[in-house]
Amino acid sequence: MPLPDLRLDDVLLGGSPRPEPLLRWLLAASPEAPAGGEPHRTAQLRYLLGALAERGLTGPLAEAWNHASAIRLLAETGLPDRTTLMGEGFLRLADHLIPRLDPEGDLYALLDRLNLKEADAAWIEALPGDLRAAWGDILAPPQETWVHAACLLSHRAAAVGLSRDLLALSPEGSDADSPFFHLTRAVQEAADHPVDASAHAAWEACRAACVATLARAHASLEARGVSTDLVFRLELLEAQLARIGQLLDFAGARGDGTALAAELVRGSASQHGLRFLLRTVVKRLARKVVEHTGETGEHYIARDRAEWWAMGRSAAGGGLLTSVTALLKAAFTALPLAPLLTGLALSANYAISFCTMQLMGFSLASKQPAMTAAALARALEEGDDQAREIELVAAITRTQVIATLGNVLATIPAALGIVALWAWATGHGPLGTESALHGLHGTHPFHGWTLVYAAMTGVLLWLSSLAAGWTANWSAYRCLPEALAQNHRLQGWLGQAGAAALGRFIHRHLAGFAGYSALGILLVFVPMAFAFAGIHLEVRHVTLQAASLALASASLWLEGTLAWREVLWGLLGIALIGVMNFAFSFALALWTALRARDLSGRAGRRLGIGILKAFNRHPGRFLGAPPKAPTKAQPLAEEPR
């Protein structure tokens, strides 16, 4: 038996013990058990039980614990306070930053103030049976508290379950056919007759129907697209149904007090953390975004020689168009415009150029890594044998090589041709001396921060792929192509065939347009935002930089001031910029895909070792043309690039 505790004596003075001082005194003791003994906190709990019995204070403590707020404690602890993700997130952020005045004696607020941890829940679960029984007799709420908490929670769950967007996920039947329409009645009957087997069976049947409805809603979201707000509400309903079942079990004297107490403590510990709130919901959205990105990435993997050459031709078209984009970039930069107007002009230049590539079936090499990484993560999740996974990586890398070569080897001659035409028409090059020198020196791999800028550009490429995947998910969730095809106003303007064609066009190109538009904005306004903060940042995109190098070199050659050594350094810089663009966008996209699919890094490391061994044996397999015979991997899906 521990020695008398003066702090506890002070807490118990006055004959009216208050829960908060008692709990703070108890939580000050360690929950960890020493070797061969029980935790100090358990010994303190045993001492407290004896002190309360000795002073006749178990009754007053039970009365204080069974405060009117006990209903809120049982019905809300561990569950979100709001029914929307944004509302709940804002509330948690506000509670974290701004103190709140809680009602006197509110047990729900008390648990929140105690800053409980997972270790506290584990300590409760490990309590010996005699202490569980003794404290259960003191703290157990009366039956009506369990009943009222269950009924309160059933009304809230029914309101969420009958919201219009959740009902729309199961459009068959009327709204009254939803099991949530009957939830409150089933809970009320089970609460009014807690030992009636038929009432309990009716509640279990209603809960099973609600769970089945939620499962169908999840399946519908998986097939269409994920809404973070809907996923949040579906998970809220699942938690509410589980809590109602626990409360009704206690109303019928069937509950496990220790398990519920530990659950309430865990819920209180996690209830106000933004990370815990976002982890599951955002992971679902990330997975769906990655899936849509991976579907696009399949189109950027050449698995046989015909597809490899087709990718090269597509990339060459992208390189030709990029030479014009680089020229317009130089022209807009030279104009005496306000920074915002310059930024808007440059973003529009990039976005229009990239979207034109999408429409013409051309390829931009640096877009591919983030897309193909998602396809690789899908293969890892499917558990293909390592030989097939290595072959997929080889197909990804050799496709990236031919796409980069196609871009660069087409954009440099095209840019030189533009300079020749410009000189023939005007007698001088398109770039001034200062602009040309900046373009030449900016490509040198070891002067300045060229490689760092290239790595940062890889990050921007990854972000643009997320924008494309998010847009594809949003379009699928909204059924946008089908909605456009069936819209009566569009059918009146375009005809039924025209509206259907518009729907197919949106399905085919919307995500690409969104990704390319995001890339155009990021390439311009991220450096401007850094400049606003006093940090100099530039972008180094392999295809754009190759075109800029050609424009700058030809302009300086016409002036007779070209240093060929700088050109050679610039060509090396183009190669290294391409490597940095590819490495960072691919690595980030693969990391995102692995996290979204709950795959461990061990699978990636094991695959990496296998890739290094395969590359060492046959590097041409990763860098050169694929074999003439098709590989054993699944053929490329015939959809537009």
Can you characterise this structure?
The protein is mainly α and 641 residues long. Helix content is 75%, strand content 0%. The chain has 28 helices and no strands. It has helices at residues 6-12, 19-27, 40-55, 58-65, 70-76, 85-97, 107-113, 118-125, 129-139, 143-161, 164-167, 183-192, 197-224, 228-251, 257-270, 274-298, 305-334, 339-360, 368-382, 386-426, 433-441, 450-478, 480-486, 488-532, 542-559, 564-596, 601-617, 620-623. Helix 25 runs antiparallel to helix 26. The longest helix is centred in the last third of the chain and has 45 residues, at 488-532. The radius of gyration is 33 Å and the shape is elongated. The model is unreliable at 630-641 (pLDDT under 50).
